Amino acid sequence: MADPLIDRPWLASYAPGVPADVDVPDRPLTALLDRAVAEHGPSTALDFMGSTTTYAQLARQVARAAEALRRLGVRPGDRVAIVLPNCPQHVVAFYAVLRLGGVVVEHNPLYTADELAAQLADSGARVAVVWEKTAAAVDSVRARTAVETVLTVDLSAALPLGKRLALRLPVAKARRTREQLRAPVPAGSRSWERLVAAAAELDPATPLPAADDPALLQYTGGTTGTPRGAVLTHRNLAANAEQSAAWVPGLRVGQETFFGVLPIFHAYGLTLCLTAAVRLAACVVLLPRFDVDTFLAAAKRRPPTFLPGVPGIYDRLADAVEERGADLSSIRFAISGAMSLPPATVERWEKLTGGLLVEGYGMTETSPITIGNPISAQRRPGTVGVPFPSTRVRIVDPEDPSVERPRGEAGELLVQGPQVFAGYWQRPAETAQALLPGGWIRTGDIAVMDEDGFVRIVDRIKELIITGGFNVYPSEVEDVLRRHEGVHDAAVVGLRDASGNELVAAAVQPAEGHELDLDALRSWCRERLAGYKTPRRIVAVADLPRSQVGKVLRRQVRERLTREG
């Protein structure tokens, strides 16, 4: 029998109480909600601007919503689009679709009509549960999709009674709030709230989906090309919920308060702000978008204990602690993902809050989390950590993934585990390229693993810059630029010249109160980087294009710099 510390050296760095492997029950994802209801029915499941829903109430709402969707013709395997921000209706719709054996298709409600059209057409969804403010965009592209029924969601319906009544006041503040939450809906659409309220509860004898049935289509690849639907099964999502809960052994079932500031239409937010929270029967405080004032008001009402986020969120909240004296000491654990977490952010957050902040890594195709820093003194800021329980990783030659790279040498990161997806929706060729024999997925990320199993992400293969025959990793150059006191953030890309060679170019966002001297900044880089890595072109920009979770979109930066010559 192989020595587990040789096969998986990272196990020695796990926090006390974290298992080497997790047990993934052979049941659908809805079983997590069923268990939370059975064991913690009276406990608060959701808090939305002060309006609360217990687990027992949530289960009844899900049963009614499932019956309403069944009457609309939703059957096992049917795709149902959800185009909503974080709100109770989103959670209810998500579990209702899954209860019927349907497949949830998550969409960003801030997408343009064309972006939504491409995804809706690809999934073949016939029913769409849509925020009122997005309904017109969905309706305008229905002819290009299979959508037959649009169910519109009124976000204000989930507010506490007092806040709903206040929205009717003839004052400017009430008008502005109404405009943020509501919009006129297209003719022919139907009210989600009225539909669910009028429905009976689904017959409990209705067959459950199987653990290996598709549960979610999550579109990915938008930063590098046309989005593809990653097919995640009930088992994939349940496994990652189990892994995430196990990774933080200090979390107590039925006693935690998760703050849902990450969008649950994104894989990262869906797992850490919804499925893992339900696995722990936690209270989820849902925020439609991240706003410091709204966050602090909610934290005063219901102090958070666990906060999944991205670096920018932690920086802005740390500012609030320093500048306003906000108390965030209730947050014992915080996990950052989606982009590199600066060690300085970790040090500042932990000093100001007394809680732990660690970085993790994942991708939509892995439900999404595969690697995390230990929730202990063993953590290593600057790395993304070690593989999760039941997860294995390899570093291989990007040109020939059958060739393993030695420890300490950069190569493509491969991942294997129960959270790895079933493939891309209706794209067998792309699935075959991504999934290797044995269930290993090619991440497309260049990484280095040390002798203890800690992983450092170097860059994306597709974003690698080759200039004069030399490889340049954008992240390395960006790290140097960000260390300059006058730079708030930076994005580095390759631009092709007339000869076909790539030139290193950088878009930099100046720090507040600084006016950048670009020649001096280039000299700063030359002192810290090899000549071929130093940006030949540096452009100051007011802001950098970002995804919904704050990740800089290098593709859009490249397009802008190319247009501007």
Automatic annotation (TrEMBL):
What SUPFAM superfamilies would the database entry show?
Acetyl-CoA synthetase-like
Identify the PROSITE patterns for this entry: AMP_BINDING
Question: Where does the record place the AMP-binding enzyme C-terminal domain?
Answer: 476-551
Q: Which Pfam families match?
A: AMP-binding (PF00501), AMP-binding_C (PF13193)
**AMP-dependent synthetase/ligase domain: residues covered:** 34-425
What is the name of this protein?
AMP-binding protein
Q: Which lineage? A: Bacteria, Bacillati, Actinomycetota, Actinomycetes, Motilibacterales
